[in-house]
Amino acid sequence: MSEPDPLLARAKRLPKQPGVYLFKNALDKVIYVGKANVIRARVLQYFQVDRRSKKTQHLMEEAVTVDFCITGSSTDALILENELIKSYRPKYNVALKDGKSYPYIAISNDPYPRISLYRGKRRRDVEYFGPYPNARSAREAMVFLQKIFKIRDCRNSMFKNRSNPCMLYQIKRCSGPCVGLVSKDDYLDQVNHVRRFLKGESKQVLFDLDQQMNQSSKNQDYEKAAFCRDAISYVSSLLEKQNIEREGHFDIWSLGQDAFRVVIQHFVIRDGKIKHVAHQEFDGQNIENEELSSWIYRHYMNEPVIKGLIIHIDEQLNFSQELTSALIDQGRMKREKIRQKDQDHLKQWLELAKVQLENVLPFLAVDKNDYQKMIIKIAKIFELQDTSNLMLECFDISHLQGDFTIGSHVTLSEEGLRNDLYRIYKIQQENKSDDYASTFELLSRRAKKLQADDKKIWIIDGGKGQLSTVKEIMDSSPQVVGMIGIAKGPTRTFANEKYFLQRKGEHRLELINLELGIRQTIGRLRDEAHRFALNASRKQHQKSVMSSRLDEIPGVGAVAKRRLKTHFGSVKNIMSASPDQLMQVPGIGKDTANKIYAYLQDSK
After folding, report:
1. Are residues 527 and 563 in the same domain?
2. What would the DSSP string read from start to end of 171-231?
3. Which residue among 159, 464, 485, 562 is buried most deeply as judged by most CB within 10 Å?
4. Residue 78 and residue 128 in one domain
């Protein structure tokens, strides 16, 4: 039997979310950075040998590990990819060491400037914006800007010899300067808006457009006012779709902890862009606050002072106030209250940092524990000689104040956590806040799905009561060889948990002492089952809340609601749609679209 590929095993545990992945070599040096809409799916494509190019083949021969950074959207992933490429200069990303292989958006200095996609040696008489990670992203940005500001992209030879406007004018992506359909001053204003937009000054562009629209309206120049109105609509729609505004300097220090370890995560944001994400692991059993505090403090003593930097230290770190005071004394932080705008930005970054940390903890856990050895040790507790095909299944019940009750089971084999075998169950019994009855239903339904050759040890998040409730299910299921119950102590901490053993066919429950490695393995599995169930319960609650909001909109009937859901796919998508997008649904007119949009925005 061949040894499993550790890189492939690691790739199979990557998150199914948008973000960036980083391949590293044996020296822990980043050799390739890529972005993906679904990180795991994209990275697994590198293991399809028949589809590899020569570059990919050399990359996979050198790569020994892969890391990731989750982003709020594929657009954010594109931006982060570009930043990391510039920071790391990975071997397999950069074909030309001076970066000439990357596309830029160029604006010429002609009397009527031209916008174009450009690669190669940069000229002094042309203004460049970028670089962009690939031609597609640069082209999409350029087309978007042409739709808003109608800037020409034709070559000068064509521009000087036209007597009629080209097709771009017909489809409203050019204002026709070649035949004098726009004044030079107005055209240069449009070019200036493009420059400022590409520099990240979106809000100022909106302000200027609004001023021009009002002034044009007063001057009865309604054509120009209409142009400004449409441009404002385009820019606003883009800003609504962006998950995070591109401004501000933030350092976010977050604490993650499970049965295995303590992880401190450092999110570095500069100019509204993720520049770096680092994780420092500590032994969860022996870590002291002084060690963590000193580690963060030394980081800032070795870094230059950044004007306007906002440092956020997780309140779960007991030393956060003490450390904050020390950083203020050293001039690294200011005592002034954070502006509302910065608080809003910080809140968005904190949400993303939380998602990243939630995915990093289980990802790191498997790397530091040999699950095969742990499963063998657990099997010995039940006096099992043959561990082939043996898996641990952990169950958990989650609900929100008695509603939206969800049961989950997660699976651990010798290969590690088996995400492909995770399952969610909607609890159907009437009294959904009854954990005993919910647990009984959950395990009863799971037992019916077991195959003849299955061999399971069940782990229940609960003590004597839960184990007694489901004992008859275990006894009637030949595939289940035993159960372990986890009872939380009075302080509900990992160190005070108790473990009860339920052997097959025995009535007596046995309170057992487990070695640290087994406790950590069980604890990790329990944490994963709880996370999986809680996320599902929250999604169900969110879906219910959004559906009820749609049902409450006055004047919108059942047919219109059904068409909206069919068109957008989900209530969440409806809530994020603009009035123009809502009007694309058959039967939804302007007044109805504005009514739906206003109602959903007010209810957020």
Report:
1. no
2. TTS---GGGTSS-HHHHHHHHHHHHHHHTT-HHHHHHHHHHHHHHHHHTT-HHHHHHHHHH
3. 485
4. no
Mean pLDDT confidence for 403-430? 84
Tokens of 272: 């509204």
Residue 254 makes CB contacts below 8 A (sequence gap 6+) with 264, 265, 267, 314, 350, 353, 354, 357
pLDDT digits (tens, 9 = 90+) for 99-149: 445 678 888 989 999 998 887 777 888 888 776 656 776 777 788 778 778
Q: Is 209 within 8 Å of 228 (Cβ atoms)?
A: yes
Q: Phi, psi at residue 65, to the nearest 5°?
A: -155, 165
Long-range contacts of range 273-282, CB-CB < 8 Å, 24 or more positions apart? 273/79, 273/80, 273/83, 273/246, 274/69, 274/71, 274/76, 274/79, 274/80, 274/83, 275/83, 275/87, 276/87, 277/69, 277/356, 279/360, 279/364, 281/364
Q: How many CB atoms lie within 10 A of CB 22?
A: 20
CA angle 15, 21, 22 (to 5 degrees): 135
Beta strands in 37-79 (DSSP E): 65-70
Amino acid at 225: A
Are both 221 and 315 inside the same structural domain?
Answer: no
Q: Is residue 407 part of a domain?
A: yes
Helix %, strand %, coil % of the chain (to 5): 45, 20, 35
What's at 366, amino acid-wise? Answer: V
Residues comprising the chain, all counted:
604
E-strand ranges in 284-381 read 309-313
pLDDT tens per residue, range 449-497: 999 889 999 999 888 888 888 899 999 999 999 999 988 766 556 667 8
Q: Which residue, of 317, 332, 364, is where some domain finishes?
A: 364
Residue 111: domain span? 104-241
Residue with tokens 């969440």: 572
465 shares its domain with 495: yes
- Regarding whether 140 and 76 lie in a shared domain, the answer is no
Which residue matches tokens 């990303």? 93
CB within 8 Å of 319: residues ≥ 6 apart: 289, 290, 292, 293
Using CA atoms, how far apart are residues 187 and 195, in angstroms rounded to an integer? 13
